Amino acid sequence: MAPTHPLAALRADEITAASKLIRSLWPAEAKFQFKTVTLEEPPKALALAVLEAEHAGKSLPNVPRKVLVNYYLRNTNKFHEAIVNLSSGRVERNVRLGANVHGAGDGAEIIAVEKLALEHPDVKAEIAKLQLPEGAVVVCDPWIYGADGVNDDDRMWQCYLYTRDTANSSELDSCHYAHPLPISPVISTADMKLVRIDILPTGADNMIKPLGPIHIRPANEYIPEYQQLRTDLKPLNVVQPEGASFTVKNEGTSSIVAWQKWHMRVSFNQREGMVLHDIRYDNRPLFYRASLSDMNIPYADPRHPYHKKSAFDLGDVGAGLMANDLQLGCDCLGSIYYLSSVLTDDEGAPIEMPNVVCIHEQDAGIGWKHTNYRTMRAAVVRRRELVLQSIITVANYEYILAFIFDQTGAMEYEVRATGILSTQPIDDGVDVPFGTRVHPGVLAVHHQHIFSLRVDPHLDGSAKNRLVYEEAHAMPRSDFNPHGTGYEVHETVVSKAGGLDIDPFANRTFKIQNVASRNPINGKPVAYKIHIPAFQPMLADKQSFNYRRAEFADKAVYVVRNNSATDSRALVSDELYSGGKYTNQSRGDAGVRTWSKRGDSVVDEDIVVFVQFGLNHVPRIEDFPVMPVEIIKVGFKPVNFFDRNPALDVPPSVQAVNKSVGLNGEVEAKVGEDGKVESCCTKEPTAKL
Amino acid sequence: MAPTHPLAALRADEITAASKLIRSLWPAEAKFQFKTVTLEEPPKALALAVLEAEHAGKSLPNVPRKVLVNYYLRNTNKFHEAIVNLSSGRVERNVRLGANVHGAGDGAEIIAVEKLALEHPDVKAEIAKLQLPEGAVVVCDPWIYGADGVNDDDRMWQCYLYTRDTANSSELDSCHYAHPLPISPVISTADMKLVRIDILPTGADNMIKPLGPIHIRPANEYIPEYQQLRTDLKPLNVVQPEGASFTVKNEGTSSIVAWQKWHMRVSFNQREGMVLHDIRYDNRPLFYRASLSDMNIPYADPRHPYHKKSAFDLGDVGAGLMANDLQLGCDCLGSIYYLSSVLTDDEGAPIEMPNVVCIHEQDAGIGWKHTNYRTMRAAVVRRRELVLQSIITVANYEYILAFIFDQTGAMEYEVRATGILSTQPIDDGVDVPFGTRVHPGVLAVHHQHIFSLRVDPHLDGSAKNRLVYEEAHAMPRSDFNPHGTGYEVHETVVSKAGGLDIDPFANRTFKIQNVASRNPINGKPVAYKIHIPAFQPMLADKQSFNYRRAEFADKAVYVVRNNSATDSRALVSDELYSGGKYTNQSRGDAGVRTWSKRGDSVVDEDIVVFVQFGLNHVPRIEDFPVMPVEIIKVGFKPVNFFDRNPALDVPPSVQAVNKSVGLNGEVEAKVGEDGKVESCCTKEPTAKL
């Protein structure tokens, strides 16, 4: 195994060593609840020196290997942040964090909270009032408590209760979201005690009705054995007879992926999941670092306790911790390489996370085409893409998260939102303007998904970049524009750190530029433009905790100076997460909006760009009991970075390679009859579905 | 062959019969230039009766077979519109159209104009001033003349001239767009004469410089033999070992395509290209008719004659006429069925148009997934799509146009813009705010692509539909919303015909509803929502000819009443094309904005919806010499139309069917080395690229 790269995630032995060093600070009988044991990345300047040596084939400079540790003394509210220097074997920092700074949830804790809530006699007494059928199984979904400033200094979980289908209680995978109960226990984590039991409003207003016998609803299952499955979907296989076009140099806790002139280092951590460093095309640096920074999902129901449903899935739990173990043939199609990872459990011990990233190629239709109508010669290439994908399960919901690279120097970040809507009980016949009834007695409340992608550009090898936006505006009438048809594109340089909106009516387009590197043909600065799909910023009002906490959620773009460039004592981890380093029950004033208030100049400086995008999910009944993917993509495309179409050198799309099958001619009648094909390319039939 | 369906395109013999009937109206020596001989569709009410009988398995009612014919008396400006009734053998209408109503271009005419422009001695004399190298080959791109109201009553072509690479003049497929010349002849079509020669501005202002020796520029070729092709792209094949999942019932000039509960009738005509009728899901009608209505591409350069570059590719020439003959293994991947068509030449004779539509399935990633974290059971299905694709070549540019259907009842219309930028000469060192230098001496001017998709809804079997839009707005603070987090979604009914904007900040979402059909679970009207990507409406000012002509280009959505429902004498063809029936050199006041001014009520009426979308193309140097696809999609998704996720019954994604190949394990090292895979699923190597 190669030596661990300074940007690679922690190895299992490093995790063990770091938590051991933390334990050594305390008496032997101390009990710990570790929340994070993760790489504290070296400052960018140091890391760039490493990358320079790496690409020059020189030995890498010595970089201290540091670890960010967050932990509680178990069963207390004493939450700590520590920096462990593994190179020196010293704990460089170990501070108890202030009031209202809380650690994220973890798997063991969530299971413990579920158990406690379901077994508490007071909860059982409330459930008894519902007179559930014999054998009914109650299920508990603990939710991050959120924040409203009302008696919420303690760290708590708000639990939402459901039953499995009471007519089929033995079905462990029954969709309990079709059977919400109006009872919501609250558990505090410091002492793992029941704080109170909230009874939920089920009408159109905020009245709380006394509990009584519950109306039993039909099941609504998503698992296949409860469906009459389609029988007319024929298999579709992706075959790469000569193998994949990419290479993976697996170095343990990071890997170098190379494909079609792209190069990147892939690692994986607890909070962000997949992280890319040192993204290059044709050996020209593009981005020093790219990752999902956080996401926020505020819900529309203003009634207690629903008004606090506002999840930060990365900050509150961790995209790495919730990553799926991806299965061959299920989660990707074609020739797949899997990356695995090591994360940390609540005892500070390493846990294996197998197959958290899958890498594969996909065909994405035509890449470019032109037919010369004079000669009738067509030139056409297909568009091949490389996909690096993770899938996370956040209790009810899932997100399919992928970086996608193409042959034109473009990078996309794709989110597919799927999984199950978080539901709540509603009385029959009631309609509310903040949710949709998706099943009898079941309300799915509107919610926003606001994603924040962090991109640290390094265009053409310089950290000195700027953010500009261009807009297209009509020219005024003049002698130059006598017919009123002209329009112009103007560029505005963003001078100070801050947030910016989209403006589709002006065709506002954000670009990251390196003005020190100019296009050899047209003299324009090399740039990457950012394609941001239209999105509605957070709707909660500016005084609300939702707004104050999700500091990225009001603007499509934030730009700030890299904190490690301006403050040599700053931790890189302090400004990786646009909603703040500690989002659980956070009070705000700790994310990218706050950082941008430093008023730093961001012109030809070491800048970081946060791109926000998302959707306002107004549920359809078609989104239940499991939701078809909603797909959102952010794109980064070269603008005057190359000197011509970078995909000109993609080999032509030809039948000798593509081996498509024509269904016309001999087989036309058969296609017309039953969809079967027989031709020289037909393979032996595989197993029927 | 089945009898021709009343909605099917004209057969070859019908084309011949119709043009013969037109010829019979005139003296035998009359010469004709036919512009259109195409089906005049029956009024919707009549067509619906046909569809009802068809789906009931009854014999179809008798519907007169009518033909829309446009023709000139050759070498005159006498342009006619005629309706031929083939059932009765009578010409029902034959009128000479008024001043400033002109016919579209056709292939033969374009070739003739090129020849005339290049061979005219006056043009040759101007070209001589450029002192082109020995053997230089000049190429002519005739452009639709556009309109500015200045001496443009006659129908004309504006010709732009280029050379092939003068160092390689024998290369017939040299990209001449890298070598624009500053000379632009104008040809009138009535007499096929040279009207004048425009000399083009090449600086930043509108000064015209005297012609002199031209600066010879390097070549910039797109065809593969001039590239150093990538050698590391391995083949990727899509294999359907049991055949395709769709069936095609080919009835000659229309076909019934059925796939995964979808049903539609596909036909193809000269102007719109592919047209879909009777689109159903699970035998529930969704749309009576869907097609691309027109597109407009206005350019930003305000200087004569460039200010008149504003193409209507459907109205000015025809998406059908420009359709590519699609090739197996080049334009699609997998198992492909091709549809062919018959159109009309300028003599009114039928011309075969082979392989104008390709039909295939594609895998589109995960369709939905959920993992129960308590049992760790994952349920996942893939998303299969059916693609019906045409590709059109509009001189320099191409559009890849596709209807895409999925397994959740959703329909998409996808446009991929590719091909070559229309270029013009520019002096060295000059930058202009309305274009990008993409090659030495070559300016690619900014331009808007504004597409207009026409959808005639028939949700759940009723023509009585309404258009609504919903918006999400913050709730004011109140006792009900004490924390300022709540938000609501409100629906507004569009009462009168007219145009509407997008509003991303309000999450404005348009929906087509049938209020007479209610969701059985939540009582909401069945609906389809329209996903429209953010787009900038036309920038040309409201007094400009560009604006007045492209009546669809100012609003994302237009809704009108179906003209054949309100006026029994109306022709269906009068209101199919949102920029007007005759766009070539049109003067405006003839498209959807004008129709909407009737002020018709559109609530629970027979409505037609036009969806506009597009992009403002600010060229990058990466878009030359051929442009990577820009992809834009409009989506139509069911909202409370079904009673749960319609894709619940898609069989699970499993390895036994998907036959993916794992690259880890045994082959890990090999992948790390050279990307080769060897596993039990590996096929014999195919030919190397």
Secondary-structure blueprint:
Two copies of one chain form a homodimer.
Chain A: H1 12-23, E1 32-40, H2 44-55, E2 66-73, E3 79-85, E4 90-96, H3 107-119, H4 121-128, E5 138-144, E6 156-163, E7 183-188, E8 193-199, E9 237-239, E10 247-250, E11 254-259, E12 262-269, E13 273-281, E14 284-298, E15 310-311, H5 313-316, E16 335-344, E17 350-372, E18 377-394, E19 397-405, E20 411-419, E21 423-425, E22 435-439, E23 442-445, E24 447-457, E25 464-474, E26 487-493, E27 498-500, E28 509-518, E29 525-531, H6 545-549, E30 557-561, H7 563-566, H8 592-596, E31 605-617, E32 627-639, H9 655-658, E33 661-662, H10 668-674
Antiparallel strand pairs in A: 1-2, 2-3, 3-4, 5-6, 6-7, 7-8, 10-11, 11-12, 12-13, 13-14, 14-15, 14-24, 16-17, 17-18, 18-19, 19-20, 20-32, 21-23, 22-23, 24-31, 25-26, 25-28, 25-31, 27-30, 28-29, 29-32, 30-31
User: Do you know the CATH topology of the largest domain in chain A?
Assistant: Beta-galactosidase, Chain A, domain 5
User: What are the segments of chain A in which pLDDT stays under 50 over at least 5 consecutive residues?
Assistant: 666-689
Backbone structural class of chain A = mainly beta
Quote the distance from N terminus to C terminus of chain A: 42 Å
Most extensive protein-chain contact, per-chain counts: A-B, 200 and 201 residues
Give the biggest beta sheet of chain A. Answer: 20 strands, antiparallel
What is the CATH homology-level superfamily of the largest domain in chain A?
A: Copper amine oxidase, catalytic domain
CATH class identity of the largest domain in chain A: Mainly Beta
Could you tell me the radius of gyration of chain A in angstroms? 27 Å
At CATH level 2, the architecture of the largest domain in chain A is Distorted Sandwich
Total beta strand runs of chain A: 33
Subunit arrangement of the protein: homodimer
Strand content of chain A: 35-45%
Count of domain modules of chain A:
3
Please, what is the average pLDDT of chain A? 95
| Range of helix content of chain A | 10-25%
Question: What is the overall silhouette of chain A?
Answer: globular
State the helix count of chain A. Answer: 10
Cofactor (chains A, B): Cu cation
Subunit structure (chains A, B): Homodimer.
Keywords (chains A, B): Copper, Disulfide bond, Metal-binding, Oxidoreductase, TPQ
Protein name (chains A, B): Amine oxidase
